[in-house]
Amino acid sequence: MTTFTPSTSAEVLDAVQWAVSEEAPLEVLGHGTKRGIGRPAQSEHALDLSRLSGVTLYEPEELVLSARAGTPLAEIEALLAEHGQELAFEPMDYAPLLGGEADGGRKSGTIGGVLAANLAGPRRIKAGAARDHILGVHAVSGRGEAFKSGGRVVKNVTGYDLSKAMAGSWGTLAVVTDLTFKVLPAAQTEVTFALRGLTEEAAASAMALAMGSSGEVAGAAHLPESVTGRVIDGALKGKGSTLFRLEGFGPSVAYRFDGLVRLLGEYGVVERIEEPQSRLLWSEIRDCMPFADGTRRPVWRVSMAPMAAHGMVMALRMEAAVDAFYDWQGGLVWLRMEADPEVEAVRRLLAQFGGGHATLVRAAPAIRAAVPVFQPQPPALAALSARLKEQFDPNGILNPGRMAAT
Amino acid sequence: MTGLIMPKPDAATIARRDEIVADMRIIVPGEGVVDAENSMRAFESDGLTAYRQLPLVVVLPETTAQVARILKYCSDRAIRVVPRGSGTSLSGGALPLEDAVLLVMSRFNRILDIDYANRTVTAQPGVTNLGITNAVQHEGFYYAPDPSSQIACSIGGNVAENSGGVHCLKYGLTANNVLGIEMVLMNGEVVRLGGKHLDAEGYDLLGIMTGSEGLLGVVTEVTVRILKKPETARAVLLGFPTSEQGGQCVADIIGAGIIPGGMEMMDRPAIHAAEDFLDAGYPLDVEALLIVELDGPAAEVDHLIGEVEAIALKNGSTTCRISTSEEERLIFWAGRKAAFPAVGRISPDYYCMDGTIPRKELPKVLSGMRELSEKYGLRVANVFHAGDGNLHPLILYDANKPGELDKAEQFGADILRLCVKVGGVLTGEHGVGVEKRDLMTEMFGKADLDQQIRVKCAFDPDHLLNPGKVFPQLHRCAELGRMHIHRGQVAFPDIPRF
After folding, report:
1. Same domain, yes or no, for A103 and A226?
2. What is the C-alpha separation between B399 and A317, in angstroms, rounded?
3. Does the CA dihedral A294-A298-A303-A304 come out positive or negative?
4. Per-residue pLDDT tens for A33-56?
5. What number of C-beta contacts closer than 8 Å exist between A and B?
6. How far apart are alpha carbons B157 and B94 in whole angstroms?
7. Is a pLDDT exceeding 90 seen at residue A106?
8. Domain limits for position B396
9. Kind and range of the H or E element at A48?
10. pTM, whole model, 2 decimals?
């Protein structure tokens, strides 16, 4: 077992070419904060990109930042914050949920990992995910060939968007060495509008009304009674909380808050959560902190039509012991199971409630080796995905078996 | 480009035309097959009218099952297929081939589902871009990407081209607003990507499909995100003595943390052409005109208008007018939106380019363009999506003068080379098509293009779908896939390890 620690893209190319020639699969790693997601690694050797680090270009006025794949996300976020900017898609940090295997949980992941896992946060409903902000990449394919795609400008339709193909590919297509992202101004202020005591059904309808208003809501979540006490130091303990984040210039936020009071005031008791509590609240929702309990109890991340989510969860509760909360207006459901992952029930009910996909993001390795962690695809789509993998990595050198059994 | 070389027509397919037409009539009964030459004329080119070619036959299917049968039929017989939406492409993406079935999706014209609670519309691909907004605007919703052809262009074509518009910086391109599609692969298989949920599952095939210019699959259904219309929108009209000052103003607005709904710039020739065409009240004594539109809640827009005004004055703007009514806002925009026809009036023909550059390079690119304009002896007018760096130089020429189209195309190619040189790209929103196909090597090396073609191989291994577009040369998939493994012959890499 060898772990390569390249510090240049040329060294990455060397390592992959060697692995190709030896038919020796590589586990591709950044900080390893998401190593527990997917089927357990079946690779003899590892390619650790954490030394391939550094911001190589940042032009705030051009809204563009380039960095090497192993650059810590925390470093990039700190640099952007100095200039009042951010990655608008608000990448989540999986380390608390998964136990932060790397460096005692001190590392929050790399920018390469952000793209490989197509991370997003509560602002997903307004600003999209990593895939919506990536402008260009340099990468080494599983064939051992260096290639680039995209560029450094926002508007670009020159050739296929292979940068997006890297998003959510979990390192199975190519080793991305350099990334260029669009960055955006960070909001000056934020406040959270909270409704207390809503049923999940009422919360869904309130969230739909808010998202369908011109209030520019940048976060819509519902924490049922069993979950709401587990954020911001228990400040929301008690009745379920339906939460809306408003961001922007001060006068605009105040105006929109009043608009939400008019729109939703009759749904329940209105509360107002100011900074810095509001920021902490949304970062905890983002990182799935209510289920970051230090256990390996199975956690699902379910992506589905927002209005169908509460129905699916209620049906699941009839069959299994499950704790749930909702982000993205309900479009993202986090489920924590008591013991058994209930794979069959989760996926059957998901299909019954309009479809989407369910990923078993936390489970013991033995379970992850035995059940499909990622949503199984219909045959034609699965075959197309397999052909795509083969075109990038014909010999299965990169993270083989992580997304689908080989 | 006038020397455009398309894939060699397959004589055997052309010889079997009658049989193919008859078989198409079995798959698509009724009026859905057009084979008379005079009727096929309507389809011989798209928005890039310099290139024309009659197809083998035109087929207008109505159902996904028909599309699947057509593609399977063609796949089995190695017949090429060119998909077409409304035919508004400016890059020749829907240019027919002599030996190819032209698959026209215009009869897929129904909206299938409107879901306000999930904020989605599901439509067939032939529905126009504006048709989606029209279907939901009575509830105060709209579909954000708004290419200037939005009255005519189809949503399926928007997916194929990853279309933009003037509101991209704030609201994103097609790729950021499409949630799901149903598509048919060249082998006739039907696959669905995404849906009403936000993240697509598995590999981001939806991301690859968006902007793939009809080379990977035929879209038969599209689900898009709709948004509530902003409460208000107001525009500021700013004039600057130099393009540098205008450019700096754009940079400072963004530097102040403001992302306008739209931010458009015009240079002197474009300003004059627009003003001559319709009286928009543009200042004629400036080198750069900037229209900044702020949208959102009234309180926010009023706040930001003040900030933009201050930034403009600091950058030496000599004209600063703020719209005080919806009517006035539309007048500010009227000149910009009419820029193409306005230029069309001062010149017999014009050729519209579409590069994107890092915004800060604008003065350099504009001065480079002036030099090229002198070199080629052709005038050029510029409109610019200033927020996102997407430049539309309009090259003025006369197609009736021998050699002038050639010159215009060479001028255009030089402009795009200049865009790439300063860190930009060949096309921001119009697509590569046939127009920029042979310039792809200016931006991409062999390994870059080979990997793109390999993606094509995963979808369409025999290169039957829309060949001759996007890629200068399509290598055979078997050749591209070949790999020689030399076990033990590559040295253990000399890089740090533990």
Report:
1. no
2. 71
3. negative
4. 999 999 987 788 999 999 999 999
5. 319
6. 10
7. no
8. 347-438
9. strand A45-48
10. 0.96
On whether residue B495 sits in a domain, the answer given is no
What's A375's DSSP letter? Answer: P
Judgement on whether residues B330 and B392 belong to the same structural domain of the protein: no
- How far is residue B21 CA from its own chain's centroid? 32
Task: Check which CATH number belongs to the domain holding A232 and give it.
Answer: 3.30.70.2190
Q: How many domains does chain B have?
A: 5
Of the candidates B429, B354, B435, B470, the residue with the CA atom closest to the CA atom of residue B163: B429
Q: What is the pLDDT of residues A259-291, one digit of tens each?
A: 999 999 999 999 999 999 999 999 999 999 999
Burial of B334 (0-12, 13-18, 19+ CB in 10 A): middle
Say if CB A203 and CB A222 are below 8 A apart.
yes
Euclidean distance between CA atoms B85 and B356, whole angstroms: 25
DSSP β-bridge partners for residue B381:
B394
Cβ(B79)–Cβ(B13) below 8 Å = yes
* A320 and A223 within one domain: no
Closest-CA residue of A relative to B482 is A394
Taking the CA of residue B19 and the nearest CA in chain A, the distance in Å comes to 30
Cα of A260 to nearest chain B Cα, Å:
13
Regarding whether B391 and B423 lie in a shared domain, the answer is: yes
Instruction: Note whether A34 and A109 are within 8 A (CB).
Output: yes
**Which residue from A362, A361, A373 is spatially nearest to A401, judged by alpha carbons?**
A373
Which among B230, B360, B486 has the least Cβ separation from residue A214? B230
User: Could you report the per-residue pLDDT of B370-406, keeping only the tens digit for each?
Assistant: 999 999 999 999 999 998 899 999 999 999 999 999 9
The answer to whether residue B486 sits within a structural domain is: no
Question: What CA–CA distance (Å, rounded) separates B388 from B170?
Answer: 10
Please judge whether B447 and A173 are an interchain contact, meaning their C-beta atoms are less than 8 angstroms apart.
no
Q: Is residue B62 part of a domain?
A: yes
Chain A residues near residue B212 by CB distance under 8 angstroms: 160
* Same domain as A105, residue A40: yes
Could you say which DSSP state residue A308 is in? G
Residue whose C-alpha is closest to residue B148's, from B334, B345, B347, B415: B334
